[in-house]
Amino acid sequence: MIFNRLEFGLLVRVILLLGMMYLTVHFLTQFTWLQMGSGMLVMLAQVWELARYITRGNNELAKFLQAVKQRDFSQRFNEHTTNSSLRQLHTAFNLINDTYKQLHIEKEAQFQYMQTILQMIDTGIMAVDEETGEVEWVNEAFKSILHLPYLKSINGLEARYPLLHEAVQGIKPGDSKLLKLKLQDGASQLLLSATAFTMQHRHLLLIALKNVSATVDATETEAWQKLLRVMTHEIMNSVAPIASLADTLGRHLQMEREKYEQEPGAKADPELLQDTEEGISIIKKRSEGLLRFAHFYRNLSKSQELMLTTVYVQELFKSINGLMRPQLEGHGVKLECHVEPPNLSLHGDVNLLEQVIINLILNAKRAVQGRPNPQVILTAEQENGKTVIEVQDNGTGIPEELLESIFIPFFTSHKDGSGIGLSLAKHIMLLHKGSIQVDSKVGVGTVFKLNFQA
């Protein structure tokens, strides 16, 4: 329709121009210079108006394309112009403008929606330029996991986390790596994965970082529980007959010994009988002890239900202080308790939590023996909205090569230890959906940190 009107206007103007040319030529043959000059001026005016008529649509189109190039969709074109062809052209331009504006709004809304989702998830995400190493975008979870206020380049990781920096530089699209890093809140296991994509002719690497310590701990604990169930079953099946047989042999031996003592002239080596009786007694006691040990672990693996209540930490510490202070002071160890704020509370099983803290205090008491000014400090506070309990001592510390093994069931570095306490503490904390971490320096001391969910 626009082109039909344009062609009609152009046809009218060409006809008028040809008519004026005819009149001008006619005036020229009649030697009427005044009329001829007037005709020439009118022809020039018609040519000028024709040129403007032809090019004004192009000018409007150029103005519209320039606005599109600059992404200026706020410009409006007059739809009430007297020229019908321009009026329809302006209407079409405004319609395209509105469409682009709506698409831009929808695209911005989708971008904000994706930004919100990526900021809310607990997995750290970072987009890196593969050529320059510059960080294009990073979400809050990534910075929170690593405790970084900002990150402009992956080289910024080198000073704080050289192992992570090396892994990020070497990771390939589709790869996954499990790293053990020492973060501010303790040692953690991080899962690093990457994927590649291209945006605006640039090759970017999207790196995901997730703290999987809790998942790995839960998986390890479940594996240990399965192993312990098998072990305790086999131990009890094997040891129970030995204990029963030892008891039977002991009774028979006692009866035979009494028989020889009552019969005059009976020959028996009293020393041999006594040694045999003592040996059978030892076998019986050790078998019964092993059965009790296996029975304890079997019950532990079945204990999965918590009696959850609101636990006020001040009262919990008061109970533990009253129970443990006399024992510690008897060994010259000072016990301190601090709770901030005083009304600090958490949701948990008070009996199991007492058991965890008492086990840690007993380990601390053993570690400070023989140290100058031995002391154990029990503290509780809030960190990032979470309740944290710490058991700190100034003991001998734990060698770094043993730190990864101390929570393994049956593992112990003490001759009189059973390897039960710390594995039990870890199991109880996982039941509370929390975690237990350790930070230790040889010759300085050890801090066990219990982290509870908000």
From TrEMBL:
What keywords sit in the KW lines? ATP-binding, Kinase, Membrane, Nucleotide-binding, Transferase, Transmembrane, Transmembrane helix, Two-component regulatory system
Q: Does the keyword DNA-binding apply?
A: no
Instruction: Describe the reaction catalysed, as an equation.
Output: ATP + protein L-histidine = ADP + protein N-phospho-L-histidine
Q: Name one GO cellular component term.
A: membrane
Q: Per its UniProt record, what CDD domains does this chain match?
A: HATPase (cd00075)
Q: Please name the GO terms that the record assigns under molecular function.
A: ATP binding; phosphorelay response regulator activity; protein histidine kinase activity; protein kinase activator activity
The EC number of this protein is: 2.7.13.3
Cellular compartment(s): Membrane
Would the keyword Glycoprotein be found if you checked this record's keyword annotation? no
Might you name a Gene Ontology BP term for this protein? Answer: osmosensory signaling via phosphorelay pathway
**Which segments constitute the Histidine kinase domain?**
230-454
Pfam family membership, one: PAS_8
Q: Which domain of life is it from?
A: Bacteria
What InterPro entries does the annotation carry? BphY/WalK/GraS-like, HATPase_C_sf, HATPase_dom, His_kinase_dom, PAS, Sig_transdc_His_kin-like_C
Membrane-spanning intervals of the chain: 7-25
Output the PANTHER family linked to this UniProt entry: SENSOR HISTIDINE KINASE GLRK (PTHR42878:SF7), TWO-COMPONENT HISTIDINE KINASE (PTHR42878)
Quote the protein name from its UniProt record.
Answer: histidine kinase
What is the originating organism of this protein? Pontibacter mangrovi
The taxonomy runs: Bacteria, Pseudomonadati, Bacteroidota, Cytophagia, Cytophagales
